[in-house]
Design brief:
The chain is 58% helix and 15% strand. The strands form two sheets. Strands 3-4-6-5 form a four-stranded antiparallel sheet. It has a two-stranded antiparallel sheet with strand order 1-2. The N and C termini lie far apart (47 Å). The protein is elongated, with a radius of gyration of 22 Å. A hairpin with a 2-residue loop joins strand 3 and strand 4. It is of the alpha+beta class. The chain has two domains: 99 residues, Ribosome-recycling factor (Topoisomerase I, Chain A, domain 4, Orthogonal Bundle), CATH 1.10.132; 68 residues, Gyrase A, domain 2 (2-Layer Sandwich). It has five helices and six strands; from the N terminus they run H-E-E-H-E-E-H-E-E-H-H. The longest helix has 38 residues.
């Protein structure tokens, strides 16, 4: 595969991953995505919650977890309680209800910092992809597979792609922060 195509594919994936990371940061509105990365100790094995239950959001401030195996309820509750989400689950023996509390101003600011940190991680990933592509292009030129003019043009193209995808990450970050600050 062409170095440029490979770099662009990786850039797109870095932006997708950053967007997925933002999805796991709660905004005060209940969404099954909030529990997506949660793992549960299921019969001694760390298992993703979405593999042992269904998660739904019937109301704006409530998540309902319907385990496939009722014996897992205690472990699911334990995993939610021990996570950094700040949720307090309750169960009725059939389903687990997870009320999603309204965010306080301090919590919104903390989550805003977290969003900025995740965005910076995404930008670093994009810059690392650029560095790797630059190295491959320079190696190609050194080995006589391309000319200095080709190298210069390709390096410029990689930089333009880098700028574009960093801008995409920044736009996702601004959108998420705006979402967090809405009451």
């Amino acid at each position: 595969m062409d170095i440029m195509e490979e770099a662009e594919r990786k850039f797109k994936r870095a932006v997708e991953v950053t967007g997925e990371e933002f999805g796991t940061i709660r905004t005060g509105r209940a969404s099954p995505i909030l529990l997506e990365r949660l793992n549960v100790n299921y019969y001694g094995t760390s298992t993703p919650l979405n593999q042992i239950s269904t998660v739904s959001a019937p109301e704006a401030r409530l998540l309902i977890i319907q385990p496939y195996d009722r014996n897992a309820i205690a472990e699911i509750e334990k995993a939610i309680t021990q996570s950094d989400l700040g949720f307090v689950p309750s169960d009725d023996g059939q389903v687990i209800r997870v009320p999603v509390p309204q965010l306080t101003e301090d919590r919104r600011k903390d989550l805003g910092k977290l969003v900025r940190t995740r965005a910076e991680e995404g930008r670093v990933a994009v810059r690392n992809i650029r560095r790797d592509a630059d190295k491959l292009l320079r190696d190609e030129e050194k080995n006589g597979q391309s000319t200095k003019d080709d190298l210069h043009r390709d390096l410029e193209s990689v930089q333009k792609l880098t700028d574009k995808y960093i801008k995409d990450i920044d736009e996702l970050m601004e959108k998420k922060i705006k979402e967090l600050m809405e009451i």
